[in-house]
Design brief:
Helix content is about 45%, strand content about 20%. By secondary structure, the protein is of the alpha/beta class. The longest helix has 22 residues, at about 260-280. It is globular, with a radius of gyration of 21 Å.
Length: about 325
């Protein structure tokens, strides 16, 4: 491991917190319990929380002043500009590497950072290390292993584009210069905030470096009912799916990929709008999905045919079931 100036951390942890008082202590404890032979810091950004989140952050900052470095906002920044928020956090970071964990998730492996940095230091051709997670379902209070196996490694751009690579942000540690380059490259883009979504970051980095997978559980990802990807708000979920599709199509347009990958991207999109059409009760959207799949030579599955031809009856049954509890 190269020598670092004694006062500088080797890793900067990126932590966004907003109204996370119920979970934040577990998150911050996951940082301070890390066992390393190098210095690290955690830049913990409170985005104008209305609960006790800033109090908890300060409690840890007072106890671990060399690790916990708070940023407190008077106005919510996430709602203004994601890219500007990232630039503000990056300006406070001193590390060679960056690791991520939001305030409602936590690291479960006390050697997470050491394992990842050891690999990156020994393998300069690799720029990102990720690993496995446990999912924690908040409502059900149930833990479940993700059980990812045989995850792609090395040059993985097309694997990510095809949806074959489950890079869970809480497990990532990467070279900070790569992350900075991505953020600054898109800071003046008209759709700048689109590029601060995890999928866009991993696709961008995969064009520039190799990824390495550690087949160990490194973190716990808390799944809450109203997270963006699990929202019960059907139109909100549809908008999220469209955003993800926009990212995939952007990188598809700007890079040369195999026909197999191109077709897979369209297949994912058409399946998504078919499913969203069913959830929204939009037969036209379902037809677009069906027609798109047909152009790829793909017929509807038995389940999709059932949804397509008997949607009104299924919708009525689901509404009745919900009403009866």
């Amino acid at each position: 491991m190269e020598k670092m100036t004694a006062s500088l951390p080797l890793v900067s942890i990126h932590c966004l917190a907003y109204n996370h008082e119920s979970y934040l202590r577990e998150c911050l404890q996951g940082f301070v319990m890390q066992q390393t032979n190098f210095k690290f810091e955690a830049i913990v950004h409170d985005d104008a929380s209305s609960d006790n989140t800033p109090i908890i952050i300060q409690e840890f900052a007072d106890k671990y002043p060399d690790i916990i470095k708070p940023i407190y906002e008077k106005e919510n920044q996430f709602s203004k500009s994601l890219i500007d928020l990232e630039i503000k956090m990056l300006s406070k970071m001193q590390g060679k590497y960056i690791a991520f964990c939001e305030g409602d998730d936590y690291w479960s492996d006390p050697c997470k950072l050491q394992k990842q940095v050891d690999f990156l230091e020994a393998n300069p051709e690799y720029g990102l290390v990720y690993g496995n997670v446990d999912f924690y379902y908040e409502k059900e209070q149930k833990r479940q292993s993700a059980k990812y196996s045989n995850c792609p490694q090395g040059s993985v751009f097309e694997d990510i584009l095809r949806g074959k690579l489950p890079v869970i942000t809480q497990t990532v540690c990467c070279r900070i210069d790569l992350f900075k380059a991505h953020i600054y490259e898109h800071r003046v883009d008209p759709n700048a905030d689109l590029f601060d979504i995890d999928l866009a970051i991993w696709l961008s980095l995969a064009l520039k470096t190799k990824f390495y997978y550690i087949d160990e559980v490194l973190a716990t990802y808390r799944l809450q009912e109203e997270s963006m990807s699990r929202s019960k708000g059907t139109r909100r979920l549809y908008k999220f799916h469209q955003t993800i599709a926009s990212i995939r199509f952007y990188y598809l347009r700007h890079n040369t990929v195999s026909k197999q990958t191109r077709d897979k991207v369209f297949e994912i999109y058409y399946n998504s709008i078919f499913s969203d059409g069913f959830i929204l009760g939009n037969k036209r959207l379902m037809y677009r999905g069906k027609r798109g799949l047909n152009t790829l030579g793909i017929t509807l599955s038995s389940k999709q045919k059932l949804f397509y031809y008997f949607r009104p009856l299924i919708s009525m049954a689901l509404k009745l079931k919900h009403r009866l509890g």
